């Protein structure tokens, strides 16, 4: 344990009303963040830091859980047993990611029931991307390549997030997302090199998923209300626009290898900046989706509530089992 860490654990809320004590904890917290040390669950942290983490981690967890729906839509219609097995494994991975993330949020003192309640009542968000429909089999490829690709770009810096449990959850999630991205790329490559109809289906999916994928990174930096504080706290390590640019730079050559085009007539290499220029994003569409007016918002949340209600017996059985075998109270889990 380093010096900064040694002084920052809050002994059962001892700082209480003691302002001088709080100031000391605050200094230790700031020093730990400045020294790139990890903040751990029992360390003192500012209320706003805790609230920001709960907001972001919960939104992230909800995205993983809701994100199962668009792809699960294709499990029964996958074109081969191999593709079906791969897709089932991927969707199951997403469920696992959601569970690690709910656990990370729980270390901040917010229970899973509360988080799910906020999701179901619309008080917490999930990623905008999952409010778009999966119309063809090629959409499974486009989600893997673009949506998981965007997720990795965003999440690799989160492996260095200042909050220990979130950063550690990200390490494993990123490894799994890399497989997901590869499977999507491989699926699209097979379609792109297939019949003219298959190629057209792959192109159509990329045309529909490209712009919503760019929106996943959040609003432009000058409209991102949380970025400055989250970066100062080292929760976020890169800005929304920086990550979006990195994603575009990665995708353009990959699209060329796939033999597919990206639906942006303004896309061009900027020699001077060493990056691809890209066209204007329709931010009106993004904010409308966030307000609940995307093509599938209602369908997604209705399905989620139904799954939760229908799963009540599983939670009850799990709680009863825990009481019987551990003598504990069980604590029903989602
Ligand atoms: N969608 O100040 P800003 C996956 C909200 S799932 C919806 O920039 P921040 C996968 C934002 O919350 C991957 N809302 O916020 C799963 C804020 O509103 P509130 C999901 C968005 O937090 C299954 C407001 O806009 N990844 O990989 O500094 C299958 C202003 O934004 C979005 C994560 O969740 C959006 N796209 O930065 C396949 C990553 N963008 O909360 C794949 C973790 C912004 O004040 N999250 N908003 O009401 C983050 O890195 C950050 O939270 C964000 C936004 C970059 C998304």
UniProtKB/TrEMBL annotation:
GO molecular function terms noted in the UniProt entry: phenylacetyl-CoA 1,2-epoxidase activity
Gene Ontology CC annotations of this record: cytosol
Superkingdom of origin organism: Bacteria
Entries under Gene3D superfamilies matching the protein: 1.20.1260.10
Transmembrane segments: none
Xref: InterPro entries: Aromatic_CoA_ox/epox, Ferritin-like, Ferritin-like_SF, PaaA, PaaA_PaaC
GO term, biological process aspect, one: phenylacetate catabolic process
NCBIfam families attached to this UniProt entry: PA_CoA_Oxy1
Annotated protein name in UniProt: Phenylacetate-CoA oxygenase subunit PaaA
